[in-house]
Specification:
- The chain is of the alpha/beta class.
- The protein has a single domain, classed as Aldolase class I (TIM Barrel), CATH 3.20.20.
- The protein is built from 12 helices and 10 strands.
- The strands form 2 sheets. Strands 1-2-3-4-5-6-7-8 form an 8-stranded parallel beta barrel, surrounded by 7 helices. A two-stranded antiparallel ribbon has the order 9-10.
- Strand 9 and strand 10 form a beta hairpin.
- The longest helix has 17 residues.
């Protein structure tokens, strides 16, 4: 077995991907307080919000206010999710608060239509322009491709289709491509085969894995991606989040679970695990319900011989 990498990068998406899935509106004060705590954990990248229509995702209607109020901390990059050109215009109104943007679309026509009411071609036509304009303003651009590992409506998704979409976004100026297991359909063998192909197809692009724990395979898929050469991951503290299309696609893989596993393997994340767990514990109290990450329940590993 080859040695694992010595470092891995984690982008925290809970304040956007996690919060937007909550049925009860979280107060702006609570959002700001939790994000400020997250910035103190050693996380170097945090997705703060998304500039979407408030009638589509009411939970993120206060995105501009949240972005304006959270404390900037040296070494922490703030990103926002951009659904379209209007979203980019709203983001640029707070350009000094943003370091990077993310755009998204699906690798399957059916999921893309159900999610954003557009064909893949229509989404690509707009998003490539959005990426180009964002780059002109000096923003780093991440493109996330949902259903990269399978679609609940269409079944198997050909990796070549995923790489074709990724190539178009990279050519437009995206310096990072995120591959999303949006409804938790990936398995470790599939993931292990996927990333070497992705690296070959996109040699000059940062590759990021975004797994959901819908069917309990989130950490196994993280490990498979790691062994396949991927060292960049998106995750959500407390295992918050999921995908509303279709219902039941719950749970991004928990950031604290990923950090715990990687650090125990000797892969440095630069993240203070107890501080991160405290963020999930506080979020649990604010939501008034139990969150599902394993480390939140069991606590970080405490070795007797290190006491």
């Amino acid at each position: 077995m080859i040695a694992p990498p010595t470092e891995a990068l984690i982008r925290e998406v809970g304040p956007r991907d996690g919060f937007q899935n909550e049925p009860e509106i979280i107060s702006t004060d609570d959002k700001v307080a939790i994000i400020d705590k997250l910035t103190a954990t050693g996380l170097s990248r945090i997705e703060i919000t998304s500039f979407v229509r408030p009638d589509v995702i009411p939970q993120l209607a206060d995105g501009a206010e949240v972005l304006s109020r959270v404390q900037r901390r040296e070494g922490v990059s703030f990103s926002v999710l951009i659904p379209n050109r209007r979203g980019l215009e709203n983001a640029l109104a707070q350009r000094e608060r943003i370091d990077e943007i993310s755009v998204f679309l699906s690798a399957s026509e059916t999921h893309n239509m159900k999610n954003v009411n557009r064909t893949i071609g229509q989404s690509l036509a707009e998003l490539t322009g959005v990426v180009g304009d964002a780059r002109k303003d000096g923003l780093r651009c991440v493109a996330v491709i949902s259903t990269s590992f399978g679609c609940p409506y269409e079944g198997h998704v050909d990796p070549e289709r995923v790489f074709e979409i990724a190539g178009a976004l990279a050519e437009a100026g995206a310096s990072e491509i995120g591959f999303g297991d949006t409804t938790g359909m990936a398995n470790p063998l599939q993931v292990g085969e996927f990333f070497p192909l992705a690296e070959n197809a996109l040699p000059d692009v940062q590759l990021t894995a975004h797994f959901h724990n819908t069917r309990g395979q989130g950490l196994a898929n993280v490990l498979a991606a790691l062994w396949a050469g991927c060292t960049s991951f998106e995750s959500s503290f407390g295992e918050l989040g999921g995908c509303p299309v279709p219902p039941g696609s719950t749970g991004n893989v928990a950031t604290e679970d990923v950090v715990s596993m990687l650090e125990e393997m000797g892969v440095s994340t630069g993240i203070d695990l107890p501080a991160l767990v405290e963020c999930s514990r506080e979020m649990q109290e604010r939501l008034g319900r139990r969150l599902t990450s394993h480390v939140l329940t069991a606590g970080p590993v405490e070795w007797a011989d290190k006491a």
